[in-house]
Design goal:
CATH topology: Rhomboid-like fold
Helix content: 40-55%
Largest sheet: 2 strands, antiparallel
Order of helices and strands: EHHHHHHHEH
Radius of gyration: 27 Å
Number of domains: 1
Length: 231
């Protein structure tokens, strides 16, 4: 039996552009820049609102720390990756994007609070590591070529970030990076069956082609009809 393969994409795998692909990253960037602007304009220091491990008051940093940055360089370094990864999340994983983002922020912050050094941990880099890790491993777990291609792009752009999940520099919160990386990996596994799925194939029968073969699969085209030329 011979079949032609018709390529059909399930509706869930049709990536459609929605306003959240733009509005969420833009809103996030505007908010962290606004907070930094308020700090430098009015002489505030919001570092005390960061995550302070194993301190009850330090738990508030789970919500506040992603929006607080130490200086302009810190803010610039986080802004572009955050925009890119949030855009990817809300484009390719529309149905589960909010769960990944908000659940990831809470768990990343909580893990940082649990394993971190006794210091204030601030910045959006934990979220960036969460998103990079989730998108990379999600493509692999799903075995979906489009998402695997996206994962390779992520590795190409941010592969060097993996070194910062280790204690390489004293002033860098590698604990926050590691927490985001681990939470992203776990989420990629947990949500591997939700959101975009690999393409589905259906097989349709082609009668004309099948008639060229006998019941045993041997090539046996029908004899051409002989026309009667007698008058």
């Amino acid at each position: 039996m011979c079949y032609l393969i018709n390529f059909l994409e399930m509706s869930e795998t049709n990536f459609k552009f929605k306003s959240t692909v733009i509005t969420v990253p833009v809103a996030a960037i505007l908010l962290i820049w606004l907070i930094y602007f308020i700090e430098i304009t009015f002489g505030f220091n919001f570092n005390k609102f960061g995550i302070y491990p194993k301190s009850f008051l330090g738990l508030r940093g789970i919500l506040f720390s992603p929006f607080i940055h130490s200086d302009t360089k810190h803010l610039f370094n986080n802004s572009i990756p955050l925009v890119v990864m949030l855009g990817c999340l809300y484009y390719f994983y529309q149905k589960i994007a909010n769960k990944i983002l908000f659940g990831g922020i809470l768990l990343t912050g909580l893990l940082t609070w649990f394993i971190g050094r006794p210091s204030f941990h601030i910045g959006a880099s934990g979220i960036i590591y969460l998103l990079v890790s989730f998108i990379f491993f999600s493509g692999i777990f799903r075995k979906y070529y489009r998402l695997i291609a996206l994962s390779l792009v992520v590795v190409f752009l941010y592969g060097s970030m993996v070194w910062y999940i280790f204690p390489t520099e004293e002033r860098i919160s590698w604990e926050g990076h590691l927490s985001g990386f681990l939470v992203g990996l776990v989420f990629a596994f947990i949500f591997r069956k939700k959101g975009p799925k690999p393409e589905s194939f259906i097989f349709s029968k082609n009668e004309e082609f099948e008639n060229l073969f006998d019941e045993n699969g041997n090539f046996n085209p029908p004899e051409p009809a002989i026309e009667d030329e007698t008058n």
